[in-house]
């Protein structure tokens, strides 16, 4: 399995370790309000302080939802194109309380 689908000891961008807040300019950290990349979030709100968990944002959910692509010489990776479409289509929603993406049916208690 590729490294992105495994838990890491340090952030891939700002290099903080698990349990530490990512730096303000980190391009891995998500906005805690929208779930999208904090670095490029254009919303006028406090984006929150993401504490690094060891998981690349969306990678854990890609594995959980079975949204993987097999990349030769690397192995399985998250299918982020599929994930982006799921966001646009409303198939997944950002759960602020859990700080993770959930399938809409799961959020309603249907799965």
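^ structure tokens above, recovered residues below v
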């Amino acid at each position: 399995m590729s490294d992105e689908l495994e838990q890491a000891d340090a952030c891939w961008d700002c290099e903080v370790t698990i349990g530490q807040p990512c730096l303000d300019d980190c391009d891995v950290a998500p906005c805690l309000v929208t779930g999208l990349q904090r670095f490029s979030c254009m919303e006028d709100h406090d984006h929150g302080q993401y504490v690094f968990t060891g998981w690349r944002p969306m990678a854990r959910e890609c594995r959980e939802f079975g949204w993987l692509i097999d990349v030769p010489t690397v192995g399985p990776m998250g299918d982020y194109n599929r994930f982006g479409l799921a966001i646009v289509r409303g198939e997944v929603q950002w759960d602020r309380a859990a700080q993770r993406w959930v399938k809409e049916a799961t959020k309603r208690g249907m799965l």
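The beta strands are 68-71, 75-78, 92-95, 100-103.
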